[in-house]
């Protein structure tokens, strides 16, 4: 079994990522840290607990994490995922409760309980992980692997990409501390930036394949209601009636790093109080100590085949 600890700001694509992990054979989700970002942390906690109830994974501990970045405040809330974070979806009520300890303690506890074997996945701001790293500087050696959805890295041969990605932009100081903590370590974090994750676009056709695979299912109903909102969010912003699977791709890479090709780089995060704050710059010259493996290529069809197969049969099993 692969033990995976997830830190998320759930969020539509975070929810899809969590369901993918729960559906994946051989994966043991040992804990979930909640962070604010897309929405307030209380709502993120409620979404995580409701999802676990829906997926009958009620023994997985959920911890409350940061509701502010290391410095300053979160920006005005994102409307991309709707007011409660899951678009048109309504989660079932649950009596599940949060852990008595916070997300920082959850990260450290999970890493110490699975020394050298735990896979960490962050699909939200890096605030909780930065705080955990301050408290336990050996996290980079305790973890077997760390996968981060964040940043955007243009093709250096074509153009610089003058845009900051949300997870890094809302807490660039945390991101910078995490990259510094992993610099020169044997296992560098695998970073899935927007330039990579935007190649993995869910379409109504793929969602229909998933629904056919699942059959009538409360879980699929929730995912379809969430995805309808997410398609509309993308369409309103000129991307077409599709939805980028940022977080599910990172989750799939956490379980199977072979899904993406990577390239070592030294990532710098712009921290100055300027419009450039939160921009990520990748130095691929090899002249400096690398602190990340950037995902540079992915086969979207291979990802979606796996996603439809696993989530479809999981939804079917839940109904049995
Ligand atoms: Ca997210």
TrEMBL record:
Q: Which GO terms describe its molecular function?
A: purine nucleosidase activity
Gene Ontology biological process terms in this record: purine nucleoside catabolic process
Q: What is this protein called?
A: Nucleoside hydrolase
- Limits of the Inosine/uridine-preferring nucleoside hydrolase domain: 4-305
Organism, per UniProt?
Mycobacterium bohemicum
Cellular component per GO? cytosol
Q: Which Pfam families match?
A: IU_nuc_hydro (PF01156)
Record's InterPro entries?
Inosine/uridine_hydrolase_dom, IUNH, Ribo_hydro-like
Q: Which PANTHER family match?
A: INOSINE-URIDINE PREFERRING NUCLEOSIDE HYDROLASE, URIDINE NUCLEOSIDASE
| Keywords annotated in UniProt | Glycosidase, Hydrolase
